[in-house]
Amino acid sequence: MIATETALALQAPQLMTTPPLLTMTGVSRRYGDVVALQDVSAMVYPGEVLGIVGESGSGKSTLLRMMNLEDTPDTGDYRLALPDLPGNLFDLDRFARRMLCATRIGIVYQNPHVGLLMQHTSSGNVAERLLIAGERSFAALRGRAREALDASEFPLERMDARPIELSGGMQQRVQLAKAIALEPVLLLLDEPTTGLDVSVQALVLDTLKRLQRDRAITMVIVSHDLGVIRTMADRVMVMRRGRVVEQGLADQIFQDPQHDYTQQLVHAKL
Amino acid sequence: MTPVLEVEGLAKQFQMHHLGQRLHAFDGISFDLHAGEFLLLRGPNGVGKSTLLRTLYRSYLPSAGRIWYHTAEGRIDLATAADVDIALLRRREIGFVTQFLIARPRVAAEDIVAEPLRRAGISAPEALEEARRWLAEFGVKRDLWRAYPTTFSGGEQQKVNLARALILPQRLLLLDEPTASLDAGARSALVRRLADLKAAGVAMIGVFHHPGDVAGLIDRDIELTAKEVPEDVAV
Q1: Is B84 close to A16, i.e. CB distance below 8 A?
Q2: What CATH number does the domain containing A93 carry?
Q3: In B, which residues are within 8 Å of A4 by CB distance?
Q4: What domain range is A122 assigned to?
Q5: In chain A, what residues touch B87 (CB-CB under 8 Å)?
Q6: Is A50 a domain residue?
Q7: Would residue A226 count as lying in a domain?
Q8: Given an 8 Å threshold on Cβ–Cβ distance, is B81 in contact with A209?
């Protein structure tokens, strides 16, 4: 929380005794002269949904890619509360990172072409995740792919269709099934409904809500759409030009934004 | 006996950056609230009654003062408690009943009502049964239980909202005009439920357009008065 003249500074957690699942500290990243992230810190507690808002270029997607270990910062520390992986995850080698991302972290991208092999079957796309994790039995692969697709509310009669033949909403469901197939501890969502028709967007958000409620998956969702963040997030982090300008409970950010930039953002929406 | 809540010198003002102004809501609010007590906030429209409720719930960030809330683990100042602590208390102990339902697309009325129980770890069938009982109690017709409240009238949405908000007994309940737009049947169901909760020791703070609706429940009231000279500080 950025201290302002009209609000009191907040204390450290006192009642919440469970440590955060995700802790990022002091993450900075430059690309040439462009500052993508400047001293960003974030915590996400088990079962919580953190929303990250900001306009294009705010660094929100870069931060999510860091959480998915697709990029390393110039400086910074990243930890997940996993007993087998103490220490800074940014220090892991490529193989360990790939294993970690495949087995413990799920991600859904805005663009399904990034997350899916468009010419393979949908079930095959989901099964690929399970193969990386070491599953070899065809029946088990198919069974678990079916389960994940079903949980993502994908119509199972189309599980062997190729993503290229599917609608945008269905492609996102395949991505989601792939992301949750291994029951990750962390689900990352990068503009998961941007570009979908409003009615389809509502259905996909509802599926995400349902999954969150039934499985208590810890999620980080990035969106420029405040409506999406409002629907999904418990807490919200507002980013601008690579920095966190404000964070707070979702209802507080929307009803009593403190920072000038957040006020502009919220008022532009309402 | 230790009170549930001790509010000391609570103040709220809004900083409106685009106007370069501060808007004064209230200041110097102090009171204690004990288990099973019902406190009514009085005062003319626009004096800040709802703002005070929202500040206690931390939808608004307090500008000054303390909100000591006593838990089994000791006291915590809600004015400055960490967001995750507030979220935790909202899941378990502190409820807020507004006039408006935030309906979600494609979620049935009974599922919306059952959700707080599900989050508290109660099994799906049990939560659903309890949800249906409360929908019936508030007079929502049986054929609407599986329907999506997004399409309901204001009054019906409000019933769903109340059933959801009151299904899980809390230690502290903040009521923001819950009787607005309710029909007589639902209103008496609400008053019965509030009386039961009060008897069970739930502490309540309420804003009511017609305090007569809950006359039998009120123990004390606080009068909020408009500040004589509105603060208008250029920043």
Answers
A1: yes
A2: 3.40.50.300
A3: 15
A4: 22-269
A5: 48, 234-235, 249
A6: yes
A7: yes
A8: no
How many contacts, defined by CB atoms under 8 Å, are there between A and B? 103
Report DSSP state, residue B153.
-
**What is the ipTM metric for this complex?**
0.90
The whole-number pLDDT of residue A1 equals 42
Between vectors from CA B206 to CA B201 and to CA B209, what angle results, nearest 5°?
145
Q: Which residues of A touch B23 (CB under 8 A)?
A: none
Contact of A253 with A259, CB cutoff 8 Å? no
H or E element at residue B92: helix B83-92
Residue A11 falls inside a structural domain: no
Query: Could you tell me which chain B residue has the CA closest to the CA of A228?
Result: B104
Lowest mean pLDDT, pick from A5-14, A174-183, A236-245: A5-14
Q: Cβ neighbours of residue A51 under 8 Å, at least 6 residues apart?
A: A220, A221, A222, A223, A228, A229, A232, A233, A235, A236, A237, A250
pLDDT, tens digit, 9 for 90 and up, residues A45-78: 999 999 999 988 899 999 999 999 999 999 999 9
So what's the architecture of B1-93+209-235 in CATH? 3-Layer(aba) Sandwich (3.40)
> Cβ contact (<8 Å) for B80 and A256?
no
Rounded to the nearest integer, the mean pLDDT of chain B is: 90
Domain residue spans of chain B: 1-93+209-235
| A8 within a domain of the structure (yes/no) | no
pLDDT tens digits, B115-127: 889 888 889 999 9
Q: Which residues of A touch B (CB under 8 A)?
A: 1, 4-16, 45, 48, 202-203, 205-206, 209, 213, 231, 234-235, 247-249, 251-252, 255-256, 258-260, 263-264, 267
Pairing, β B38-42 against β B64-71: unpaired
Q: Which residue of B has its CA nearest to A230?
A: B102
Averaged pLDDT for residues A198-205: 87
- Mutation test of the interface with chain B: which of A1, A6, A208, A266, choosing the one with the most B Cβ atoms within 10 A? A6
Strands A22-31 and A34-44: antiparallel
Question: How many domains, in total, are found in chain A?
Answer: 1
Q: Minimal Cα–Cα distance from B145 to chain A, Å?
A: 18
Stretch (H or E) spanning B41: strand B38-42
